[in-house]
């Protein structure tokens, strides 16, 4: 700290202490006596100078590797890189912003369509898997209904057979189920490597979406571009993230679904009967 700042802080501090002790400068009482009368043992300057020393002790005690790992974690949560240090405005803006995806934010559902065969697993099967995951998520994690969910779909190497199955009717049913049938909020939707055919279908379907949801849907041609919105902390290893590999996550999810097999089969028996819904006649007079 520069000397002129220290003098300003000390002058302000003693001015406040004189007012607290109801003493005037005309009484010519020394500063140390005023501090002794008020029981002040440390000045503001002392507290300021002690903070870096406490921080230095923590770094030396915990070890440099653990400290660096913690710093990288916090930077990943705020989408900061070492290059951002050059621009002070960018750094100051982002250190106060944390990503809302992960354990403390919205729950993440990652979909990879590249290894799927449309003849063995149709788009309807994909939809059922998503809904089963949502069922289990709502059962095990009630807070997910408040935090919301984020969907990431990677279309890399996806068979064009799925594009023909993604009809406007199918997409409308999916949107209705996610937005109206489930007690969850769609916080964000990310499409990576989306083919032109899917983008064309989306432009037709977005006419049925609300403006709020449209702003939460993002398209990325390259994986590197998505890091601005999705922290590496929540991504699998294959996507440059810090989580387990996609195969490990898939095996864990498969075991989870199999453990809920009987519960999901029982739940499938419950259906809605649209014929019993109350219908208001169009010609009814009020």
Layout of secondary structure:
Elements: H1 3-20, H2 31-38, H3 44-62, H4 64-77, H5 88-94, E1 107-112, H6 123-140, H7 144-147, E2 149-154, H8 161-165, H9 168-181, E3 186-192, H10 196-205, H11 211-214, E4 217-220, H12 246-259, H13 261-268
Parallel strand pairs: 1-2, 2-3, 3-4
Number of helices: 13
Major beta sheet, specifics? 4 strands, parallel
- The string of secondary-structure elements, in order, is HHHHHEHHEHHEHHEHH
Overall mean pLDDT stands at 79
CATH architecture of the largest domain: 3-Layer(aba) Sandwich
Shape: elongated
For the largest sheet, list the strands in their spatial order: 1-2-3-4
Question: Overview of this structure, please?
Answer:
By secondary structure, this protein is α/β, with parallel strands linked by helices. It folds into three domains: 1-62, no CATH class; 63-98, no CATH class; 107-270, Phosphatidylinositol Transfer Protein Sec14p (3-Layer(aba) Sandwich), CATH 3.40.525.10. 50% of the residues lie in helices and 8% in strands. It is built from 13 helices and four strands. The chain has a four-stranded parallel beta sheet with strand order 1-2-3-4. Helix 1 (3-20) packs across helix 2 (31-38). The longest helix is centred in the first third of the chain and has 19 residues, at 44-62. The protein is elongated. The chain crosses the membrane at residues 189-209. This is CRAL-TRIO domain-containing protein.
Gist?
The chain has 286 residues and is of the alpha/beta class. Helix content is 50%, strand content 8%. Helix 1 packs across helix 2 (31-38).
List its traits.
286 residues; alpha/beta; Phosphatidylinositol Transfer Protein Sec14p; 4-stranded parallel β-sheet; 13 helices; 8% strand; elongated; disordered C terminus
